[in-house]
Amino acid sequence: MLILKDKINNFKNNRFSVAPMLDWTDRHCRYFYRLMSKQTVLYTEMVTTGAIIFGKGDYLSYNEEEHPVVLQLGGSDPEAMAKCAKIAQDRGYDEININVGCPSDRVQNGKFGACLMAEPELVSQCVESMKAKVDIPVTVKSRIGIDDQDSYEFLHRFIDTVKDAGCEHFIVHARKAWLSGLSPKQNREIPPLDYERVYQIKKDFNDLEISINGGITTFEQTHEHLKHLDGVMIGREVYQNPYMLAQADQQIYGDEDAVIKSREQIISEMARYIDKHVAQGGKPWHVARHMLGLCNGLAGAKQFRRYLSENASQPEANGDLLKKAFDKVVQLQK
Ligand SMILES: Cc1cc2nc3c(=O)[nH]c(=O)nc-3n(C[C@H](O)[C@H](O)[C@H](O)COP(=O)(O)O)c2cc1C
User: Fold this and answer.
1) Alpha helix (H) residue ranges in the chain
2) Is 263 labelled a binding residue?
3) Are 249 and 37 in contact (CB under 8 A)?
4) How does pLDDT run across 273-328, given as a tens digit for each residue?
5) Computed from CA positions of residues 180, 198, 130, 63, in that sequence, does the dihedral angle turn out positive or negative?
6) Which keywords does the record carry (predicted)?
7) DSSP-assigned letters across all residues of 195-246
């Protein structure tokens, strides 16, 4: 219990996080990110209650090193959500986040994701039943609106209702969701972002912790948002340019003693991780694919990516592959 309590205390600072991204932020990706930043909060990909309760695989496995790590749950049946929350707490997750932001058809058919913004009472029941079962925080990631339900009042009512069930932290993706006519990918660019709306929510609900997400790509922008809000979540930019995380503990958390690891150091730690993964029967590509962007911005970045793509699926591949790929970059720096 003491360990759990310590985790919660350490976890108070949600200033910066990497977004949940299906197929991207799996446990290998999160291990890689954690090597670069000790403090950034990491989210899992969305895991549905159905997968946890009825699935054959273990959808909750993670590396101990990943803490603080948040499980993002997809679902809307309060009983199933509570059951999964309890399982997640027992497995050591630091927090549970409910997906009220994903617009894909598959998600709507299962009645979870962004369509739940129209049912704040149901989300509220989920939060309530989850909180009755766990001590770790239960949070919500939402949009600013859905389809033509895009007024400020709609968002306000959603937050107001769900907060009453005990949700104290909302992460708001500052773009409304289109539930038909746009693919999830298109819906990450259109319609326009509205950051002011999220700022207004913080003004109206000052006691709540409000984080913002959507289209943020730099730490300068992050600092600007942090003047108005409690936290910033970045998704795609971190995935494309992961080495930015090496600066996060110093630049965002103000930890002047934080060690900024070199890319070379990260390569050698990840090579060990790949070797361990291979020894357990895993495939190097499943890890290396998340590292393609590590050298972006340097001469040789293209060669690095190409080497990994061409070689990580070879039968004899192991951790050395990363060092060989990085040699391409080193040669061009000389
Ligand atoms: C490949 C991909 C998968 C995503 N999967 C999820 C998901 O599982 N759960 C979720 O809440 N959002 C998901 N999102 C949305 C992101 O969490 C985030 O809200 C969105 O990308 C906007 O942030 P960004 O502009 O910083 O990328 C996904 C985004 C991408 C690019």
Assistant:
1) 2-10, 27-36, 49-54, 78-90, 105-109, 120-133, 152-163, 195-204, 219-226, 236-240, 248-251, 263-279, 284-288, 301-311, 320-333
2) no
3) yes
4) 999 999 999 999 999 999 999 999 999 999 999 999 999 999 999 999 999 999 99
5) positive
6) Flavoprotein, FMN, NADP, Oxidoreductase, RNA-binding, tRNA processing, tRNA-binding
7) HHHHHHHHHHTTTSEEEEESS--SHHHHHHHHTT-SEEEE-HHHHHSGGGGG
**Start-to-end CA span in the chain (Å):** 53
- The band of 106, judged by pLDDT with boundaries at 50, 70 and 90, is low
Q: Is the CB of 19 under 6 A from ligand 1?
A: yes
Q: Are 134 and 85 in contact (CB under 8 A)?
A: yes
How are beta strands 95-100 and 231-234 bridged, if at all? unpaired
Strand partners, 234: 18
Phi first, then psi: what are they for 133, rounded to 5°? -105, -20
**What is this structure's pTM?**
0.95
Q: What is the CA radius of gyration of the chain?
A: 20
Provide the 3-class DSSP secondary structure of residue 334.
Answer: coil
> Is 214 assigned to a binding site?
yes
Whether residue 66 contacts residue 94, with contact meaning beta carbons closer than 8 Å, is answered with: no
Phi, psi of 244 (to 5 degrees): -60, -25
* Under 8 Å between Cβ of 46 and 73: yes
Contact of 31 with 273, CB cutoff 8 Å: yes
Residue 221 Cβ inside 6 Å of ligand 1? The answer reads no
Q: Would you list the DSSP string of 100-128?
A: E----HHHHHTT-SGGGGG-HHHHHHHHH
Separation CA 167–CA 159 (nearest Å): 9
CB atoms within 10 A of CB 272: 11
Distance CA 25, CA 33 (A): 9
**Which residue, by CA, sits nearest to atom 2 of ligand 1?**
21
Residue 29 is among the residues annotated as catalytic for this protein: no
Query: How far is ligand 1, taken at its centre, from the CA of residue 34, in Å?
Result: 19
Cα–Cα distance list, 310 to 63, 290, 330 (Å): 27, 14, 19
Q: How many residues does the chain have?
A: 334
State the Cα–Cα distance between residues 140 and 43, nearest whole angstrom.
Answer: 12
Regarding the beta carbon of 173 and ligand 1, being less than 6 Å apart is answered yes
